Amino acid sequence: MSYTGPDFDPPPERRSRRGPLTVALAALVCGGLLGWGVYAATGGTDDKGAGAKAEGSPSAAPRTPSPAASSPAGSASPSAEDGTSPAARTPSASAPAAAGPLKGKVVVIDPGHNPTNAEHTAEINRQVDVGTHRKECDTTGTSTDDGYAEAEFTLDVAHRMRALLQRQGATVKLTQDRDRPFGPCVDERARIGNAAKADAVVSIHADGSGAGNRGFHVILPGPVNAGEADTRAIVGPSRALGERIAGNFVRVTGTAPSNYIGGGTGLVTRKDLGGLNLSTVPKVFIECGNMRDSKDAALLTSGAWRQKAAQGISEGIVSFLRG
Ligand SMILES: [Zn+2]
Prior knowledge:
By secondary structure, this protein is α/β, with parallel strands linked by helices. The chain has one domain (56-64, 97-322): 3-Layer(aba) Sandwich (Aminopeptidase). It has 9 helices and 10 strands. Helix 4 (150-167) crosses helix 9 and helix 6 (235-253) packs across helix 9. The chain is globular, with a radius of gyration of 18 Å. It binds zinc ion. Zinc ion (ZN) binds at residues 8, 112-113, 141, 150, 205. Residues 190-318 form the MurNAc-LAA domain. This is N-acetylmuramoyl-L-alanine amidase.
């Protein structure tokens, strides 16, 4: 793997006991989401199961109207495909939560890395305590071969998720929004979710693995009790959150779980990530795809696909929070 960031050290070999059916079952279970009426009403999931799309060119996706584009709110226009962030036309982070099924719920979105981390190598290389060990504050993240940075991808997906979740009534906070020169450090990223007393936290990433390695995976916290880290109380709910996200991600994006990690389940457990180890609230990471694979890169660089990714993750969160 070309990716050497501290939060994405080559994960320990682990064979999951779960089979591919897990995700398929989760997709079925979560398929009948209540309270996501906008998408159901507008046929937003018409293209669910279009697994072939993952194999097609990116031009296949943009021609499909995004669910949000056809929603009454119309917050995402077809121009989303141009790759521009929808942030400017979405509610701000400080906007009052709308009435909706998630009213009173707090969701923290953690866009992995930071677009200007590379200009602050001394700061991000500072060691921080993650309970089990010390590691770098943060990393630059990976990029596609054409130079689309993971840190831009994570912010774009986070903005799209924020709009979707605020529309459901949730209070949404981002750990960073291009509003600081670097970081936050991985320990602070965890503490932001803790301080917000978040009901769910999702850290957004894209992987930097070898060409041919494809698909998404959700990273769950393993049981850790060392130093400041004690994940024992969040392992269970985090798994529930991760399973809902994986199932909905498959259903909405039509893309398959990772073919290189997780044994086909789309789920991986790790105990070396500070962002998970130090969390006291349900939290998972998602690697939405592999930026170093050309076919995955075609998806990750598509605004239409990112909208689906944001929708899949968000619907997983909604499903988890509604129980
Ligand atoms: Zn990352």
